[in-house]
Design brief:
alpha+beta; Helix Hairpins; BirA Bifunctional Protein, domain 2
Length: 424
């Protein structure tokens, strides 16, 4: 959510920002019009309420002859007040909905483009492996080593689900343990969170009202399945006023995650690439309202994810995401993509975002500034720590041997019981 007073005072700037993100700048005019109409109705309603109270208070001291006229006038004003309240509720609801749909302002340093074709490769780290044998894709490797039950689990749980076994299942858990240990060494608080949520946190994060078709809903319980620990962590301190001394708050959140992937038609969904349920370790930061501070943490989160990919010995590239591809909540976004040999391309493993105070305004999360004592909205940031099974795809394909076994990098071996090779 944005600051309506800033929008009113900086209309052309806000329109330019919305245009860069692919939103209709006319929405700004409609929002401001509703804001002024709402304020006018609030002022008018308050005046009517005060007049009605004045008339009601005057009845006792009025003469018998005056009372009928005062009562009639009070009733008339009461009816007028009721109508204005109905109007106000309609305008307020329209205004609130438009405010919830306003995207965050993009950083002036973001590439400006309408879609993912405008994303910019900042750097590539590591060289894609040149095999001296015909490499297998991750599905062939799983079948060869007896690591999965993809066909059987589809009969039980439907498409885009997975069941992996033995060394590969251990490898999935080992990745999370390695990343959680890394994050704790960087000062993060490790926290496991539920995968169910009430509706309000989805508005707080920004999933709603933008992506309802991507979310699993359980109507009998009026609860939703979470697509990331960020959803829960973002509302963990909702409506609180923290001390600046409490900041930054660093969370390493672990949870099962659920996504309908309703918009994934036409994309590669074979095997482990894009599934409905997965496990994710999430980096989440709450810091003070200072763009230099949150940008510092943005770079820190990015560096940690690069460490993870380097520890896993995967070739990867870092993308600066353009305005048209970054989504409504984002101020600045970097994606990391690991090389997938079977697809001859890089595929996303991490998404690192600075949200500034956009989410905090929606959750009403604030802190008291030490310098001036003012209450301010915090900044929030998030980044993938590791998401599986997505990360398993480039891992087993890049580290495969001719016989179908898979090498385990040195940094991961302690989490695999010292194993240097798995399979066969």
């Amino acid at each position: 959510m944005l600051d309506i007073k800033f929008i009113v005072d900086n209309q052309q700037y806000v329109k330019d920002c919305l245009s860069k993100k692919g939103f209709n700048p006319e929405n700004v005019d409609n929002l401001i019009s509703s804001y002024f109409e709402m304020n006018k109705l609030k002022t008018s309603s308050q005046a009517l309420a005060e007049e009605k109270n004045r008339l009601s208070n005057s009845i006792k001291s009025a003469s018998a002859e005056e009372r009928p006229a005062i009562i009639a006038k009070s009733k008339e004003i009461g009816e007028e007040f009721k109508k204005e309240q109905e109007q106000l509720n309609e305008v307020q609801a329209r205004f609130d909905d438009m405010m919830l749909r306003m995207p965050n302002y993009p950083s002036p340093d973001c590439p400006v483009a309408p879609d993912e074709s405008g994303n910019v490769v900042i750097r590539k780290v590591g060289e894609p492996r040149k095999f001296d044998f015909t490499p297998r894709d991750h599905i062939e490797l799983m079948e060869l080593n007896g690591w999965s039950e993809m066909e059987r689990i589809a009969k039980v749980s439907g498409s885009r689900t997975y069941a992996i076994k033995n060394d590969l299942a251990q490898l999935e858990l080992a990745m999370h343990m390695m990343v959680l240990d890394k994050l704790r060494s960087h000062g993060f608080t490790v926290i496991t969170v539920p995968s169910i949520s009430k509706e309000k946190p989805l508005y707080g994060q920004g999933y709603l009202p933008f992506s309802r078709d991507e979310i699993y809903y359980m109507p009998a319980d009026d609860l939703y399945l979470s697509g990331t620990a960020e959803l829960i962590l973002n509302s963990l301190h909702a409506d609180e006023i923290l001390s600046e001394n409490d900041l930054p708050i660093l969370y390493a959140g672990f949870s099962p995650c659920f996504r309908r992937e309703a918009g994934a038609a036409g994309k590669d969904t074979r095997g482990l690439v894009r599934v409905h349920q997965f496990m994710k370790t999430e980096q989440f930061v709450i810091c003070k309202n200072d763009i230099a501070e949150s940008e510092k943490w943005h770079q820190k989160l990015l560096a940690i994810s690069e460490e993870v990919l380097q520890d896993l010995e995967l070739p990867y590239q870092v993308l600066d995401i353009c305005t048209g591809d970054m989504g409504a909540p984002k101020y600045r976004q970097y994606d990391l993509e690991a090389w997938v040999p079977s697809q001859n391309c890089y595929r996303e493993t991490h998404s690192c975002s600075n949200i500034t105070d956009w989410q905090a305004r929606r959750t009403n999360l604030r802190y008291r500034d030490n310098a001036d004592g003012k209450v301010k909205y915090v900044h929030t940031l998030n980044n993938t720590g590791i998401a599986t099974p997505r990360a398993l795809v480039p891992f087993i394909e890049n580290h495969q041997n001719a016989d179908g076994t898979v090498n385990i990098p040195a940094k991961l071996q302690p989490y695999m019981g010292g194993k240097k090779v798995i399979g066969k």
